[in-house]
Amino acid sequence: MINNFTTADLWDDNEGMLICVNPIFKTFGVKHSFYGEIVTLKIFEDNSLVRKMLKNNGKGKVLVVDGRASMRCALVGDKLAELAITNNWEGIIINGCIRDSTLINQMDIAIRALNTSPVKSIKRNIGEIDIPVNFSGVSFIPNQFVYSDSDGILISKKLLL
Fold first, then answer.
1. What is the DSSP string of 68-119?
2. How buried is 13 (Cβ within 10 angstroms: 0-12 exposed, 13-18 middle, 19+ buried)?
3. Contact 146/155 with Cβ under 8 angstroms?
């Protein structure tokens, strides 16, 4: 997917069709803009389902991970970021932390996360897949669309690009 868009222009051109996510995320990775169909996970301090999802073909999709804003561990590190790149995910939005940020910031990936933590997550294979998740003032609903660049994150019910 070609990422020749800005969220500001998208907002101006589609007034009333977009919802703006509260600006609480930090940007990680070399790619600064991405968009795609929303795929969701709801987890807590357990990233086993993140790995499971990133093993799938992510072409045209963005993985939205509701980690319930936990700051106690990271849900994505360099190995999962590499898996996302290998399987063509457009981007990842994490309501939680990442680790290996120095390495990830050199990788051809776009990640939005709350912060970083060196602590790895537990592995119990617990969580929910493809359900609406709510954080940062909005609902991320599977099969809707998300757009992100350096200015922020927008959501629409249908594909606008």
1. TT--SSEEE-HHHHHHHHHTT--EEEEEEEES-HHHHTTSS--EEEEEE-SP
2. exposed
3. yes
What confidence tens digit (pLDDT) does each residue in 90-135 have?
A: 999 999 999 999 999 999 999 999 999 999 999 999 999 999 999 9
Q: Report the number of distinct structural domains present in the chain.
A: 1
Q: Which domain holds residue 76?
A: 26-131
What tokens does 101 get?
């940020």
Question: Any idea which residue has 């776009």 for tokens?
Answer: 110
- pTM as predicted: 0.97
The answer as to whether 107 is a domain residue is: yes
What is the Rg, in whole angstroms, of the alpha carbon atoms belonging to the chain? 14
